[in-house]
Amino acid sequence: MTHGRTRYGVATLLAVALLSSGCSAPEEDGALPPAGASYETLPPYETVPEPGRTIEATPPASLSGLEGYLIAVVVPDASASSATLLSALKDVVSAGGGDLQQLAAAEGAADPVGAALDRALDVEPDLVVGLGDGIVDMFGFESAQRLGQQFLVVGAQLAEPTDNVTAVVWDGATSRGSAAGPDGDLVDASITEQRGEAAFRAGLASIQDDTTGVVLYLD
């Protein structure tokens, strides 16, 4: 009986000790910082933004590192806007040493943009580019089915982009296709060669840095 009481007494003391230690104040290393403490601000792009978030575009003065990089561009129509963007893309890709393959939508086809996109995907490019608002609806559907393929949309944006779709927009070129309204009036005159080149440099540089799935706003 004496041994039983002794074991019971020891167990009780241990339980009290454990409860006391559990209620003690945390060590200094795990303490929360005092109110008003400052936190280090991470530089831009240190943390990849959530898909669809709009951030400021910062186009580099020049772009390199495209050697061996295959870009397939879907040209939705023969409009002046598409021609301007295509010319800008050619200049940027050529200066960067990349390879460009053009896939034009055939007029009169049942689904001209869809057929051009299928041909673009067939060449197994590193990147599929879409020009302007004419590609938005088809890119919005196909890009969500092909998460391993990178897409770049310039002069428009997807309503609900996945993290494999990067877009570059500016005032007058913010179309979201038929699924949602643009951020403002669409103005064809806002699509210039200079702005197109800046947009492609910004978009390609962002993809090179693995900052994808975002909308880059070009001021």
TrEMBL record:
UniProt KW keywords: Signal
Signal peptide: 1-25
Region (Disordered): 27-53
Keyword flag Signal: yes
Protein name: BMP family ABC transporter substrate-binding protein
Record-linked PROSITE patterns: PROKAR_LIPOPROTEIN (PS51257)
